[in-house]
Design a protein that fits this description.
about 40% helix; elongated; 6-stranded parallel beta sheet; single chain; 28 helices; about 750 residues
Length: about 750
């Protein structure tokens, strides 16, 4: 075999496990020390459940493989389902029903895998020759002649010349150094395992090259197929965060034959480390690369280390410019691609129509369905242009809920007409635009599916969330809306699922409902085994698994995951020119500046301005935020001879803040509300300061850093702006507006209706 083919074949070792959680391959057989050259093939076939040993860790690799053993190995590989049915009679007079491999020999005869001798015998216990091996395997796998010239001086007149030439021309067998093949020499068990391994890997490589996913799946075990449907997070190993490919991560990838992984902050140190990590992960993956995903929404949900810190989706909503949303998606994709990440769990297509939503808020583009649709499609297209998959979320819509599905089960009680007009509108638009991946929400929609089950948490009756609902995913999403892409669940670690349904049952329900990829199972090995068992028991039809796996493979091919990758050195060389590049920072700054929106102004157009020589008091809820604003103010207003002071506002600090602002010429009240119910937020402290400032007729600005709900919950604001995030690009743009160096030209992307909401 040539070097390229050997590389393909060698890389796939370890990804074909039949029994989830089994012992490592090197511990399966203890007698391979003298057969190291064959260890790869023996372990590969053992993991597939094709070859077996003699018990007590013995494989006996140098023992001759018999004709019966050879056909048994092929039947286990090619016709495992037929082994579950009653055996038809073998028509060989030397294969009695008492023979240990009677059933396998009968199946081999029925399927034309092997034939007997003219006298009606099979010689089941006779050693298999090299010639017979070539004949058996070339017939079993219907191999065609390859392009490699074959020169073997002792096969010309041999009965097996044709199959030997076919195998040789595909680099699947070779001769000896003296130019002979020795066709009548017997084959050992080790040799036969290696020959089968070569053929299977060759066929898989051919299928991948041809993008023949049905053929590839025919060479994938059930274990391997359900592994493609799992996308865990990368857990700790020996009490330490996993930032390199350690033995624990290798074991997860190999034992569970994973189709993907999701990265979090705990796996990230810097750009070079992440790039090295993703590169090394793919080296472990074998011939089917992994989806590597991340949550890079921008704004408050960000992962790229040292990368462009985009101002977030609501900032884009305030700017209202589709071209800017597309640019944001494109540069995000460029940075993720450079880091070795191909799936971005973004954009958020939830419509943030409810101020009491504790989890979406400024992660949304806004409260208007048309705005969310327009900017969502633009962001998807930007990511697509960079070769990164957009996984939009959270279908059918998480915007109008007052419960965080990380913590409990939200129920959206709107009727179907309202869902069509609002929640479903951006998802329908994304489907029409050809979005490739969609994340489900752990939210119940009784208008679509009102089925209830008994909760494991407290015995109450709970509705099925979208993630587990066949009516929502197969009926609504695939049937009515015509979605043909990959469905990925939201995280299975979230309480809405784990507490009420139990993970194993939830995994089974989700796949039955139409989920293609289970994201972040709490126990990945148990989830894997649950799906294997469900297929074997018939609870989940194998066709369901095939359909999902084919979608996954097609999407991996569409985004070039099967294409040769650059070397790690090449990836690291170009990294600095992409991550946080000058061009990307320019886009970041422009979005932040275009987003700043006026909440209130005495003239209706501008907030109060900071003036030359002012003593500016910055009141914030935490010291670091106040210091950030102070630093940016001094830098942007370096020509204004400003004096600055920091004070805290919030519970127990109001009196100190009142004393500080009494000596000020100008006050910045930095308000931040996110990840809590807005109506229950501690607005009173901010209101106290506003009233004190109004009473003294002082210049000030309420600087909204989070969800821009200040106009709803605060009264008599005379001056205020919203920047939609406390990240530096957002706050720097806000400071420029307060200094009069920039106009607040953004439009609050929340309508009046968003203050009247009912209730990832």
């Amino acid at each position: 075999m040539n070097i390229k083919m050997m590389t393909i074949f060698g890389a796939v070792l370890g990804s074909m496990l039949v029994w989830a959680g089994s012992a490592a391959a090197e511990n399966r057989f203890t007698d391979l020390q003298q057969s190291k050259w064959a260890e790869d093939g023996i372990n590969y076939m053992a993991k597939r459940g094709t070859v077996a040993g003699y018990g007590n860790g013995k494989f006996m690799p140098e023992r001759s493989v018999t004709r019966a053993q050879a056909v048994t190995f092929m039947v286990r590989e090619l016709y495992p389902q037929q082994l579950q049915t009653a055996a038809e009679g073998a028509n060989y007079k030397d294969v009695p029903r008492t023979h240990p491999f009677y059933r396998e020999i009968a199946i081999a005869e029925k399927n034309g895998l092997a034939s007997g001798f003219p006298d009606g015998t099979f010689h089941p216990d006779a050693p298999l020759s090299r010639a017979e091996t070539a004949a058996f395997l070339s017939r079993a796998y219907s191999l065609d002649a390859g392009k490699q010239p074959v020169s073997l001086k002792d096969i010309e007149q041999h009965w097996a010349a044709a199959p030997i030439l076919i195998m040789g021309s595909n680099r699947l067998i070779g001769g000896y150094t003296d130019g002979t093949f020795r066709p009548d020499r017997s084959v050992t068990r080790a040799e036969f395992a290696v020959f089968m391994t070569r053929v299977i890997r060759f066929e898989r490589a051919e299928a991948i090259q041809a993008h023949d996913w049905d053929k590839l799946m025919s060479y994938m075990t059930v274990s391997e197929q359900v592994g493609q449907m799992l996308m865990p997070d990368i857990r700790q190993w020996n009490g330490q965060a996993t930032t390199t490919v350690n033995e624990g991560l290798k074991r997860s990838i190999h034992d569970l034959e994973l189709g993907g992984l999701i990265l979090f902050d705990k796996n990230i140190i810097n750009a070079r480390q992440v790039t090295t990590l993703t590169h090394d992960i793919q080296l472990e993956a074998g011939d089917i690369p992994l989806f590597l995903g991340i949550d890079q929404e921008g704004g408050v949900i960000k992962r790229i280390p040292g990368g462009t810190n985009l101002p977030g989706q609501m900032a884009l909503g305030a700017a209202g410019d589709s071209s800017m949303a597309e640019a944001a998606g494109r540069l995000t994709g460029e940075e993720l691609k450079a880091l070795g990440v191909q799936v971005n769990f973004a954009p958020v297509l939830d419509i943030n129509s409810n101020p009491d939503n504790p989890i979406i808020g400024m992660r949304s583009f806004g409260s208007n369905a048309d705005l969310v649709s327009r900017l969502g499609i633009a962001t998807i297209n930007g990511l697509r242009q960079s070769g990164v998959i957009a996984a939009v979320k959270h279908f059918p819509g998480h915007g109008d809920t007052a419960v965080d599905s990380h913590l409990g089960m939200p129920v959206l009680t709107h009727n179907r007409e309202r869902l069509d007009a609002v929640e479903l509108k951006p998802f329908r638009a994304a489907i029409d635009d050809g979005v490739d991946m969609m994340m489900t929400a752990h939210i119940a929609f009784p208008a679509v599916d009102n089925e209830h089950v008994i909760s494991l948490k407290d015995g109450s009756s709970v509705p099925l969330p979208a993630t587990l609902s066949k009516k929502v995913l197969t009926g609504l999403l695939r049937g009515e809306l015509g979605y043909k892409g990959v469905i990925v669940s939201d995280a299975f670690t979230m309480n809405a699922l784990s507490e009420n349904f139990g993970e194993n049952k939830a995994v089974e329900r989700a796949v039955s409902a139409g989920v293609d990829i289970i994201l972040m199972p709490q126990d990945s090995a148990a989830a894997h085994q649950t799906l294997v068992n469900a297929v074997k028991s018939g609870t989940i039809p194998i066709d369901t698994i095939h359909t999902s796996v084919k979608r996954i493979l097609e999407l991996k091919a569409k985004y070039g995951l099967f294409e040769p990758t650059e070397s790690l050195a090449q990836k690291l060389t170009v990294l600095n020119g992409i991550i946080g590049s000058v061009e990307h920072r320019k886009v970041e700054r422009e979005i932040a500046e275009r987003a700043v929106s006026l909440l209130a102004g005495r003239d209706g157009e501008h907030p109060d301005q900071i003036q030359h020589g002012d003593r500016v008091v910055i009141a914030a809820t935490d010291v670091e935020q106040a210091k950030q604003l102070e630093r940016q103010l001094k830098q942007a207003g370096s020509d204004l001879s400003l004096k600055t002071e920091i004070t805290l506002m919030g519970q127990g600090t109001t009196n100190n803040a009142l004393q500080a602002i009494s000596k000020a010429d100008y006050v910045i009240l930095a308000s931040y509300q996110f990840r809590n119910v807005a109506s229950q937020f501690g607005w009173a402290d901010v209101q106290t300061l506003i009233e004190a400032l109004n009473k003294r007729n002082m210049r000030y600005a309420v600087l909204s850093l989070g969800n821009p709900y200040e106009p709803i919950y605060l009264h008599n604001i005379h001056s205020g702006i919203a920047v939609y995030g406390k990240q530096e690009p957002n706050t720097e743009a806000g400071i420029k507006v307060l200094l009069g160096k920039l106009k607040a030209g953004g439009v609050l992307p929340l309508t009046a209706d968003s203050s009247k909401g009912s209730d990832h």
